[in-house]
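job 3f2a | input accepted
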Amino acid sequence: MNRRLLPLLLLSLPAFAQAPDAGTAAPPAAEAPAAPDAGTPPEAAAPACIEPADEELAEVLAPAELSVGGQTREVTRLELHGLERLPEADVRRLAYLPAQGPLSAEAARAGLLRLARTGLFRHIQPRLQVSEGGEAVLQVQLQEQPYVKRVHFTGMREVAPHELLRDMFPSPPDEDDDDGETTVHVRSSPRGGVQVTTRERCPAPVPPRALLARYENDDLRPGLAWGGIPRALERALATLRHEGYLLASLEAELRPDGLLEVTVDEGRIEDVEVRGVAPEMVPRVKDALGLKSGDVFLRSTSRSAAQRVEAQLPFLELRDVERKARPQVRFREEAAAGGTTRYRPVELTPEERERAPEEHEVELSLGALSDWWNDEVRRGHEEGITTEGRKVVVHLRPRRPEVDLGLLPVHTQVTGFAPGLSGSVTVWDPKDRAHLTLDAALFIPLRLGGQKVPGDPDQTSEQRRLNVLGGVKARVSRLHLAEVGVQAHDFIDTQDRWRLGDFDSWFYSALINRPDREYFRRTGFAVFATEQLGKGLYAGLEYRRDAQGSLVSMDPPLSLFDRDDGPFVNTPALEGRMASVVARLEYASDAPEVQRVGSLFRRPEVSLLKQDWPKEVALRSLLTLEVGVPGLGGDSQFEFWKLVSDNTLYLPVNDDQDGLRVRARGAGGHDLPAQKQEGLGGWNALRGYDFKELRGDTSLLFSAEYQWGFFGIFTDVGMVHAPAAGWSDAKLGLGASLHLGDEVEFSAAWRTDERAEAAPTVRLLWVRTF
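job 3f2a | predicted structure (770 res):
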């Protein structure tokens, strides 16, 4: 098998074209072929490299027999016949064939090969004639490539004519850019070994561009079809396939006046077949695919269909299948009435494919490598979608049980370092009746640094207890239940997850003794159900019954820095047994049709939806109401209600995540226990101010951030209502940030009240919560 690496420096000089009207490339008036610059006379020495015969030249160059009676003869004279548009002197100059004088057999063969490699001839028939006087005359019958004056396309709706013309009729490279080619031979043995060899090729003769049909300056210049019309059509078909038209085909007709009529079939689907699922699931799969008979089948269409199936039917997965090699197509010439020549596609037989060389143009650059890698990643979504003729076949199978494990590098002021694990196992039902998920997590406080609760060894032992959570839930699609389940837990909890991501809190607790969270112990269980009311709209109910315990910061602090500042204060919680009901309503305009919801660490302040940062306009809203009801199994001191509303609007400007993010959050209630109280100040909750500097039973927070590339500016405005003091003054925080990706950012924030300082508060945040 021959694979040819065509150098990047073989420039085609494509024009930055606009689509001509009516699909027709209107050429200028026919121009007579101009003679090449007189620089290399025919008598000049030929290049030192002499190429052996190549398989690709067999269709052009007939075998040359230069021996008589078994003895190789010197060629006395070489005659060229059949030239119509090409001047003989120019042809000889390209092939280094002298007009007079004898030629050795080797020089004659090399000249014939160079003639074939010019791409100017459809067929070359050499014939040696020996006269009675012993003179050996090599007569070469030449058939020029067809002359193309203009091109007209029919059948194209999505592809502009210039996209095909510039590949069908490229301009020849400059001689300075023609650095030759490298042929790479790859041979495999039955035992699995692979042998790779390379061979440098001499640069092919480059005809003057005035002789050739070429697309430049938004026009088709008339001339000979360089390399032939079949090769031009093969390049056009390759362009269509590269642009994603997986079922595309074309045929052409050349008229005597030089008009090339190209009929393009962009490739429309005739049927869609689904394999590997139960019969009752086939209509749902087809509906998710969105592929219909008569649609043009594009690579992007295939990719989108695969992604829709995986998003809407997560219990199924595409099955990788062994793909049949795409049929290799060659265009055969057929003579028609009136001097017309037709070109129709013909699939090569296995024997012809074995003999036919395959050419692959490779661009050696970092950009090309990146494009290749992205194509390979995207192709992973398409491996289960194949074609059989014009039929699209989708290969599916039930999704295997999924196991998800994660590390919990927990570090808090009330436990010290408490590493752990979280994990889940999901068992999928291929008929979409009920999908079961088992969740669990545990983390163990370690005894490091002599930490303890001062003067209270019992409390120290209590806070070093194992933290464990476990639950089971199901998704029942027919009832539109996104989740219904139960969980039990005994762990340290916080209501501050809406402020700062888990990892950021643990990181700064270990680094500088500033976790920006307050913790309490929860031991009990929860029963919950979440209904999907529509795309991105969810409503849920949850019953919670827990024993609530207060926690104390350990001493000395277990952190790398700021250990001398003393333990980070953890506000005591109201202890007792709390029973409450939580009702929630959530909406995300950019949510997929189907998504997993819920978490072991369920909080009324945090969304159950797991969403990436949007790249389009999106609105996300969370509304929860928690009511403490002693009559449902709780103590009398836990009779309260609390309402939380958290709304975020994303207004991206472009795909680079430039844009505006706006947040409006309000939360408050009545007779709230200490662990339910509101507080503003700290990161993502009135940045620039101290942690929970403003405390009360109700809070209002407005935030806005604009981002240009890696740079952003933000502002926060917040105020808190306290039962005794009423509403506080509105506080304003300002800041700037450097974004190091979708999540990581380095931020600096300033407060603007009477305690303002020139030095900002800074943080490197790993997880973005707003």
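job 3f2a | Residues 495 and 676 are 7 Å apart (CA to CA).
job 3f2a | closed
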